[in-house]
Amino acid sequence: MFNWMRNRRMFVLMIAFILFIAVMGFTIGERKKLSWPENFVLDSSAFVQQWLYRPAGYIAGLFKDIANLHDIYNENERLRKVAAAYARDSIRFNQIEQKNEQLQKDLNFTERQKKLDDYTYMIAQVVAVNPESYDGTIRIDLGSKDGVEPDMAVVSDKGLIGLVSRVDPFYSSVMPLTKLDANAPDTKLVSATVLGHENESFGIIDSYNAETNRLTMSKIADKDPLKKGDTIITTGFGDVFPKGLMIGTVESRQDGDSGLTATATIIPAADFEHLTEVFVVKTPEGSGS
């Protein structure tokens, strides 16, 4: 009974409110001018709506901006990951491309050398260079397990590097031409000749000048045809350095005071400052000379 009475009151209030709105609308429609209470009610309601609408708009805009910032952050994160992946892949691609280019050069070099001699060229990576002036050896990643032996010649794709001075199971040390010293008792000097004049020209590569980056060739006969621009190669004499290995190019020739012998300044063919890969030369038994 109580619930029915309460519902009845609510129903009556709703009907009264609807009738009030209808009467107000009809009255306003009939009159051109509103009374001051009506103006007050409308102005008050407009003022209240204004102050309610603006904060609501600001709040709605704030939530929209937050949503946009979240989307922008997610997009930036995605782009950052894509950029990082691209940079990583680019570096890897460049490394692979450089490696392929180097391997192609190595292949071309070995194929070219096969046409000139019957040597075997074992590719080795340079793993360390001893900076000490009294040593200066180059460390490579081939050793006795790979068939490397002491006194094997080592070359780059440009020219002669030196000799294997020490062999370990998995690594070897190479004494480069830059450490040649004619006064040292254990130094193995390089007998050399001019390409195209093998039977007419002869000399000994016996020292290196670090300041000028030049080799010195001595004991050249006065009638030797060696001249500026000639290509110097190994003779193979002495069963140490195999014959036909590129040493360098003659920069100048200096005649001795006695007139019997001359010396020559040789520009090394190999670049000793930027060695990454070298070749250990393996010759057939007894083919050193």
Layout: helices, strands, pairs:
Blueprint: H1 2-30, H2 36-116, E1 120-129, E2 138-140, E3 153-155, E4 160-167, E5 172-176, E6 190-194, E7 203-209, E8 214-221, E9 231-234, E10 246-255, E11 261-268, E12 277-282
Characterization of this structure:
The protein has 289 residues and is of the alpha+beta class. The chain folds into 2 domains: 37-116; 120-282, Thrombin, subunit H, CATH 2.40.10.350. It is 38% helix and 27% strand. The protein has 2 helices and 12 strands, in the order ααββββββββββββ. Strands 1-2-5-4-3-12 form a 6-stranded antiparallel beta barrel. Strand 7 (203-209) and strand 8 (214-221) form a beta hairpin. The longest helix has 81 residues, at 36-116. The radius of gyration is 46 Å and the shape is elongated. The mean pLDDT is 77.
Features:
Thrombin, subunit H, alpha+beta, 27% strand, 289 residues, 6-stranded antiparallel barrel
Poorly predicted segments: none
Strand content: 25-35%
Overall 3D shape: elongated
Strand segment tally: 12
Query: How many angstroms does the end-to-end distance come to?
Result: 129 Å
> Which CATH-level-2 architecture of the largest domain?
Beta Barrel
CATH secondary-structure class of the largest domain: Mainly Beta
Let me know the largest β-sheet. Answer: 6 strands, antiparallel, barrel
Counting structural domains, the number is 2
What does the average pLDDT come to? 77
Percent range of helical residues: 25-40%
Topology order in helix (H) and strand (E) letters: HHEEEEEEEEEEEE
Could you state the CATH homologous superfamily of the largest domain? Rod shape-determining protein MreC, domain 2
Task: Trace the largest sheet across and list its strands.
Answer: 1-2-5-4-3-12
Number of separate helices: 2
* Radius of gyration over all CA atoms, rounded: 46 Å
**Secondary-structure-derived class:** alpha+beta
Instruction: Say what oligomer this is.
Output: single chain
What is the CATH T-level topology of the largest domain?
Answer: Thrombin, subunit H
